[in-house]
Amino acid sequence: MASPRLFLAPVLLFAWSAGTQLRFANYYGDHMVLQKEPSCAIVWGYGTPGADITVTVSQEQNFTMKEIAEVRADFKWKVILSPMASGGPYKIEANQSYKQEVSNVTLNDVYFGDVWLCSGQSNMEMTVSQIFNARQELAEAKNYSLVRVFSAALVESDAELEELGAIDLPWSVPTAGNLGHGDFRYFSAVCWLFGRHLYSELQHPIGLIDSTWGGTPIEAWSSNRALHACGLSVDTKRNLSLDPIGGPKSPSVLWNAMIHPFVNLTLKGVIWYQGEANTIMNTDLYNCTFPALIEDWRKAFHEGSQRQTQLYFPFGFVQLCTDRRVAPDDNFPRIRWHQTADFGYAPNKKMPNTFMAVTIDLGDDHSPYGSIHPRDKQTVAYRLFLGALAVAYDKKRLVFQGPYPQTVQVDAHLGLLKVTYNEPIELRQLSEEIFEVCCSEQPVCKWTPVSIKASLYFSVFLLNIACPRTVLGLRYAWMEWPCEYMLCPLYNLQNLPAPPFITFAKNNPAWIVW
Ligand SMILES: *[C@@H]1O[C@H](CO)[C@@H](O)[C@H](O)[C@H]1NC(C)=O
Ligand SMILES: *[C@@H]1O[C@H](CO)[C@@H](O)[C@H](O)[C@H]1NC(C)=O
Ligand SMILES: *[C@@H]1O[C@H](CO)[C@@H](O)[C@H](O)[C@H]1NC(C)=O
Ligand SMILES: *[C@@H]1O[C@H](CO)[C@@H](O)[C@H](O)[C@H]1NC(C)=O
Ligand SMILES: *[C@@H]1O[C@H](CO)[C@@H](O)[C@H](O)[C@H]1NC(C)=O
Ligand SMILES: *[C@@H]1O[C@H](CO)[C@@H](O)[C@H](O)[C@H]1NC(C)=O
Ligand SMILES: *[C@@H]1O[C@H](CO)[C@@H](O)[C@H](O)[C@H]1NC(C)=O
User: Fold this and answer.
1) Predicted TM-score (pTM) of this structure
2) Please, which residues bridge with residue 273 across strands?
3) Which of 151, 178, 443, 487 places its Cα 20 to 30 Å from the Cα of 194?
């Protein structure tokens, strides 16, 4: 019995010294945005066990709300506020009384609005100062004083943390300085631009939490539960930290340190830009690891917030852009496909309430940060924003997805293929190679380019000389760099590109052979 006590003593000492001081958890702060109605925002912190805590929400002299709690034996207290309409500023005061001792802590300039968490690797980490039109974007930061920003610091941990290990940018009113603090530091350009679009449309405060780390695989952001669902585990995979570039590769270490602390906060949703690191690691597991991460984060945030964060909260993501013009493998197209759980579009049956920004047409081989870091983040964020409006804000009739094929008709005599999409298409460019057919399967498909000849309303016509009678499969944009900037062949009338797809004739009712 002696050794556990020796082990526990320092932990208790630490908790005791941390606990006597009344405080909020470290990611609460002045200028923050808390989640508005219909959900309830959660406020928690540390105090003296047994003490009474009173949390008041007030607007200048106007008292709004009072909630009470008792500090638990583990030094934590927590209140669930009543649902708040959007607006502010509010003062939130926590008042502790224990025996004769009274103390209080205060958050000032707090607003209620929608809180979005932005995560992923370097393309989400890229700051506003690194993108096209940076100077103007930075100069306009002050126009959006009700979009509030917060950035977690780079920390990894072997155990799930309750609070952040460190904070790069505490809750702040946006300025040119904190939106462009330094390359790949803070603040995330995609996160910022997404948030300011939401603000302009919805006209209520938006809170943005940036928790990102470049060069990190999905395994690092996945809990042990999520890894386990895909046959991975913390132990067997701990060894994949071979690539010295970028952030940690070990499983769960960023989930533990940079995501888990937020599970007790009420959120509106998440946006995610990650996958590049998995083009060289567990690529063909991504169709499992990504849906598993989404499901696991949803459960964890729902439970951690005592059901205040919706179980199926909206989850948006960016389908990978381009890197190499000539690639020795098809890892990028495979990851793009797996990002949709092999459906090709989102939301889908395995990924409900998700939305996807397609970016195969935003390649930028002159980017000073390397072609893997394209600078047009405005278009990325705008496409995400459209998805959010449709999926998270119920704009049911908004077109937010590019065209996706419904049927493939094969005319074996003329050697024509007619691909019919689910919405009208704009043919922006003819191409001799972006569509490819599979002519034989020995032992795997040999893909041969077919040329686009014309389009009409919902359909595009392809000439297949290679194998008019025996076409077994068809794919589109299955290349690392399928088209030039904004010049893919196929868009819809709203300027959204058709996503890549791959489809096979075998047992597929969408294929019609004449
Ligand atoms: C306080 O509440 C009153 C009545 O609801 C309102 O007229 C007034 O504007 C409020 N003051 C502030 C500072 O919000
Ligand atoms: C804080 O607690 C003290 C002692 O219980 C009480 O007198 C005071 O009114 C409280 N303040 C607020 C804002 O609740
Ligand atoms: C909060 O604490 C300060 C001293 O730190 C004290 O002046 C103030 O009266 C306290 N407020 C309340 C409401 O107890
Ligand atoms: C931002 O504010 C500046 C003045 O500070 C104004 O000239 C400009 O038009 C504003 N831009 C937007 C997009 O509102
Ligand atoms: C981890 O990798 C190193 C170097 O590749 C190897 O020597 C070691 O056996 C591996 N450890 C485990 C637990 O797989
Ligand atoms: C993921 O993709 C791989 C490779 O295409 C495939 O073998 C596997 O069955 C897929 N897994 C899931 C869960 O769809
Ligand atoms: C935060 O959520 C975790 C997981 O549900 C829970 O164990 C923990 O007690 C929560 N923290 C607080 C302060 O309630």
Assistant:
1) 0.93
2) 120
3) 487
